[in-house]
Amino acid sequence: MEKLSTSQPSLLSPTRWPADAFSARRCLVFVGTVGLAFAVGLAFASLLVLLGGPAPIRAGTTLQLTSGLLIAQIVAYVPLLAAALPLLPFVARRTLGEIGLHLPTLRDALAGALGAIAMYIVADGAAIVQKFAFHIEGQQQAVQLFGTTHDRTLISGLIITAVFIAPVVEEIIFRGFVFNAFLRYVPVALAAAASGIIFGLAHFDLTAFFPLACGGFVLAVVYYRTGSLTSSMLTHGIFNAVNVVLVLATGGKG
Questions:
Q1: Residues in a beta bridge with 62
Q2: Residue 148 falls within a domain, yes or no?
Q3: Is 58 strand, coil or helix?
Q4: How deeply is 206 buried, as exposed, middle or buried, from its count of CB atoms within 10 A (0-12, 13-18, 19+)?
Q5: Which of 191, 213, 236, 253 could make an S-S bridge to 167, C-beta 3.0–4.6 Å?
Q6: Which domain covers residue 153, as residue numbers?
Q7: How many domains does the chain have?
Q8: Residue 119 burial by CB count (10 A; 0-12/13-18/19+): exposed, middle or buried?
């Protein structure tokens, strides 16, 4: 099996998992339940957008940050977390601690910071390549939202969502489940690439797909090398925080 590390085998090495971990039946249960949770969250989010004030559209195409849209984004994560967190040990046949979810340690913080640097270089490098090769800007709509309002309450809420809530939920799903599920059956590099592609597609933003997929690959590498889901969460959160600071510092143009 191809490895991304020449040191001691990762705690996530398939040889360390129970034989029935990420079986087809268990994966189908996870995907079906989380898919249903996503549909429920999307329905509630759509309702909240309608009830939350002005329509979140400006100039016909660009999202406008409103209280309804912000609350909708937060609420949409709730059923996903409620479904994925208890089901992950079921599908992995290991505890959350064995999967790598724990309170942050100094080692996690260091790995998260180094991972964020690597993610910034890779994801932003991919965005630059995409821009010059295909003349497509690779900035996420979620990042662009910061430039659509001066309301400090809305901006603060979006920061909390981008830096804390989204990294936790997305790492549980895309690294805790998707990456590990692939890792049970394919080499680690292919598992990282596949989970990165699915991570990019799941954001429903084709203009930012390539940078997101590359960033997702880095997150998978961080998780595999450390065996810590907390480390990949910190990498994800720090990366988002840096982008938020840059966008706010440039008035939404960064």
A1: 58
A2: yes
A3: strand
A4: exposed
A5: 236
A6: 14-249
A7: 1
A8: buried
